[in-house]
Amino acid sequence: MELNKIEELLEKYFDGNSNEQDEQKLRDYFAQENIAEHLVPYRQMFVFFEKEQTLQSNKEFKLESAAKNNSFKRFSYSIAASVILAIGAGIFVYTNNFNSHAEDLGTFNDPEIALQETQKALTLLSKHVNTGYESLQYIEEYETTKNKIFNIN
User: Fold this and answer.
1) What is the DSSP letter of 7?
2) CA distance 146 to 128
3) Element containing residue 4 per DSSP (H, E)
4) How far is Cα 89 from Cα 85, in angstroms, rounded to an integer?
C-alpha cells in the first residue's frame, strides 16, 4: 500500500471520519514489519488496539438498570407524596384561618356601633331592591300594551 494512502487514512482516523474497512487497512499496515520511519509511533497504538480487541473478560457483570429504575420510582413517589402532603396541609391551614375570621364577622361589643352598621347594610340592600322594583315597572307597562294589542280583558 502506498504511503500517501496510509497517511490519508490516518488523517481520516484521527478526524473521526474513518470506517471499518479503513481502520482494518491501518491495522494490517501497522502489523507489518516494514513501515515508514515517521509512522513508527502509531504502530504501538494499532497493535495495542488489535490485541485488546481479542481479549475477553471472564468476570460476570450484573446490570443494575432495574435497581436504578426502582430507585427512580421510589424517588418520584416520595416527591409526589410530599407535594400532596404539602397541598393538604396548606388547605387545612387556609380553611382553619378562614373559619376563625368568619366567626368574628358581625359581632360588636358596643350596641350603637352595631346599630349604625346594621343601618348601613339595610340602606345598601334597599338601594338594590329599589333598582329591581324600577325594572318591574317596565314589565308592567309591557303587559298593559300587550293586552291592548291582543284585546285581552
Assistant:
1) H
2) 28
3) helix 3-15
4) 6
| pTM metric for this prediction | 0.36
90-140 pLDDT, tens digit each: 888 888 765 555 555 667 788 888 888 889 888 888 877 777 667 777 777
Contact 108, 117 (CB under 8 A): yes
Nearest residue to 12 (alpha-carbon basis) of 23, 3, 24: 23
CA-nearest of 46, 34, 44 to 10 is 46
DSSP string, 22-86: HHHHHHHHHHSS---GGGHHHHHHHHHHHHHHH----------HHHHHHHHHHHHHHHHHHHHHH
CB 59 within 8 A of CB 26: no
According to DSSP, residue 110 is labeled: S
Residue 151: φ, ψ to 5° = 55, 50
Can you spell out the DSSP letters for 21-39? Answer: HHHHHHHHHHHSS---GGG
User: Given the C-alpha cell 309591557, which residue does it identify?
Assistant: 142
Give CA 83 to chain center in angstroms. 14
